[in-house]
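Possible regression after last week's pipeline update?

I re-ran a chain I had predicted before the update to compare outputs. Posting the input and the new output here so someone can diff against the archived version. Not blocking, just want to make sure nothing changed silently.
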Amino acid sequence: MSYLNKLFIALSLALLPYFLLICFCHPSGDDFSYAVLGTKQGILDALLDEYQLWNGRYTSNIFVLKNPLIFSDSWLFIYRLSILGILLFALCSVFVFFRYFLKDSISTGWIVFCTLLFLLLNLFQMPILSEGTYWYTGVVTYQLANAFTLLYLVGIHRFSSIKNIIFKVFAFFWLSLSVILIAGFNEVIMLLMLVFHGLVVYIQFTCNNKNSYWFLGLLLASIMGFLLVYFAPGNRIREAYFTGESHRFTHSLLHTGLQILRFGFDWLSNGVLILLSLLFLSIHSNLKSVSIFFKNRFYINKWISLVGLITVLFLAIFPAYWSTGIMGQHRTVNTAYFYFILLWFINLSLWSESEFIQKIRIKYSLKKYALFVSIVLITCTENSFFAWKDLISSDAKMYDLALKQRYNRLNAIPKSVNQLQELSELAIKPRSIFIYDITKDPKYFPNTCYKSYWKLKSYIISK
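New output (post-update):
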């Protein structure tokens, strides 16, 4: 068996718990509420209401309003299948991205390996795995956005080499529409696209590139996407819930800085990333000799690249503090981590000629073992540890059974009865799977979601 095949087996085993957990995940919170909204009215009316009354995510709202829960009989199976499909689509987008930019550097087999390793590295240290992987609303809003963004990056690079003016005009309008739609997935990707296009335009005009004005047009499209999201009437209504806590610049900037230090240190001090970084530096000279991107230093200054590493985190954290005064959830930081990984290795490439990094070397005989050690560490630490724990301890299975019993209980409640209905709280709550459980308050959000989705007159409370 070849060395690469052994690596594939090791990677498959490391990824196994993440895919097995999909078999036990359940809808929660927003999944139910959006399904109710999506079935009450037509999709265009529902989208307009969300845009005017809650948020400006006009693209991801299409998917969440028509989510798998609108299916009457097989909704749980379709829910899980949809999450699996999106994750596989995201995996394919990473492969297309690596295949396009690395095809002259490494073989297809090693590109597949890099794709699986990137997915594993992302899942392994994702700030909040449950919301980023096992919750349909979160997967659609963030993971799907990342997948389309990678495909878009491939598209704009191919666009720069198109010479036929008819094809170029068609591609320009397609890319302009794409960037507006991508901005509509979530606020973080909207800001990232805006900053990215601003940087591209700066580079194009600095180098007097013939495509400068085309990319200026794409920047204008990204600005349009920004305006559509930022000035959505619903955002003003949502921010009103945090009056007195939001729009405090010093508070937001200070806490954003602290969070950048927290997450940056956590990610960069991880032994797996350190080991993979050393491996990357040991083969960098080979990549530089065959790849036009490595040879041309990715067409950016190393200092800009370093600032970009920090900017990705800033754009994922600061808006939350600015809008709400707190960072109540970490799923926006999941997006930052996704691009942080890519930018980290680009930074290593750009800074590889520094005197300190030049001294770092791994003997060839140790490289093979280092890769296996990295995969072993990924398999049994961080999110992987808890994923295996949830499976081996049967916590995921018991959680699944408890919720299926709850659904049976909800199905048995007469629609016309109007009285309090007691449901058992979840006794077992796996750490890896998203959980938003009911309470004794009948007006608590998960309680009302069950009531609305099952079309009950009765209020739901926990025992």
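Follow-up from reviewer: compared with the archived run. The beta strands are 421-423, 460-462. Marking as no regression found.
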